[in-house]
Design brief:
The protein has helices spanning about 40-45, 85-95, 100-110, 125-135, 155-170, 180-190, 205-210, 225-235, 270-280, and strands spanning about 1-10, 15-25, 25-30, 55-60, 70, 145, 175-180, 190-195, 200-205, 215-225, 235-240, 245-250, 265. The chain is of the alpha/beta class. It binds adenosine-5'-triphosphate. Adenosine-5'-triphosphate (ATP) binds near residues 16, 32, 37 and 40. GO terms for molecular function: ATP binding; ATP hydrolysis activity.
Length: about 280
């Protein structure tokens, strides 16, 4: 578990992180809108940056192993003219942990065998991201910090990477993933932190998060032309097209809904709960 106490970060007079207190355990997903402070928080946990005076990050290591942190920054673009193998070898050496068998294991785990001799600048976004996570595992970390694992990836690459992260989770004490994609968090994480404007809006399990916004979520089948009217009643979180004119819409609202023939109460799901939290519909 990683305990974060009174963490603040001020950059040029702006409070980017505002007194965060968190207990991160298992696979934690940090989610929030653009500019919420996720990357800044990840950098501080990875010890790349420091919090303001009085901020504490405590690694509650359950084993006798020394603390080793693996980190994938949001923008991982290094050594464009080196091959995948050369990058892994170089970074392992720099981390003081060159082990060719482990590099081969990571190449296999991340399905990189066909790219071993390709230059970094020749890789697709998905392959690049896989190399990024592989390099974060070079020092056999017990804490893994991955900033936006699926940034810019297509849906198939996203699914592959999520599966790999689940596989890795058995080998490390804690994984912390930040994302602005609800799917990343919903499918991988057992502990969720929602931050906005550097402040905590929620911390807990998926079921606890969903519980917070129960009785706020509804579904209705309406004419496409009526979508704007629904926008006045609540916040639309999902639209499924039924025909050229009809759509099934899921929305959240705190306003009392009388017509339960038209508007049926439904489970909010992760996305509904997340939007409720950001819209201040539920009390954190
Ligand atoms: N070095 C810096 N100097 C000035 N402002 C910064 C710096 N680093 C971050 N910020 C500001 O802090 C805020 C939070 O940035 P951060 O990158 O941590 O957010 P984020 O939640 O990761 O956003 P995104 O999802 O867009 O990546 C933003 O308003 C950003 O402009």
């Amino acid at each position: 578990m990683i305990t974060i106490k009174n963490l603040s970060k001020t950059i040029r007079g702006n409070k980017i992180i505002d007194n965060l207190n968190l207990k991160l355990k298992g696979i934690t997903g940090i989610i929030g809108p653009n500019g919420a402070g996720k990357s800044t928080l990840m950098k501080i946990i990875a010890s790349v940056e420091k919090g303001d005076k009085g901020s504490e990050i405590i690694f509650n290591n359950t084993s006798n192993e020394p603390i080793r942190i693996g980190y994938l920054p949001q923008n991982f673009s290094i050594y464009p003219n080196l091959t995948v193998y050369e990058v892994l070898k170089l970074l392992a050496t720099l981390k003081g942990n060159f082990d060719s068998a482990h590099i081969e294991y990571l190449i296999e785990l991340f399905n990189l065998a066909n790219y071993k001799n390709k230059k970094m600048k020749e890789l697709s976004g998905g392959t690049h991201r896989r190399v990024g996570i592989a390099q974060a595992l070079l020092n056999k970390p017990n804490y893994l910090i991955i900033d936006e694992p699926t940034a810019g990836l297509d849906i198939i690459e996203c699914i592959k990477l999520r599966n790999i992260l689940l596989t890795i989770s058995e080998k490390v004490e804690d994984i912390i993933i930040s994302s602005h994609l609800p799917e990343d968090i919903e499918y991988i994480c057992n502990h969720i932190v929602v931050i906005e404007k550097g402040q905590k809006r929620f911390e807990g399990s998926l079921s606890e998060m969903i519980q917070r916004s129960e009785n706020l979520s509804y579904e209705a089948t309406i004419e496409l032309n009526d979508l704007q009217k629904l926008n006045v009643i609540g916040e639309i979180v999902k639209i499924d097209k039924i025909s050229d004119k009809l759509v099934k819409v899921k929305f959240i609202t705190r306003k009392p809904i009388a017509d339960h023939q038209l508007y049926k109460p439904v489970q909010p799901g992760f996305l509904g709960s997340y939007v409720s939290l950001l819209k201040g519909e539920v009390v954190p």
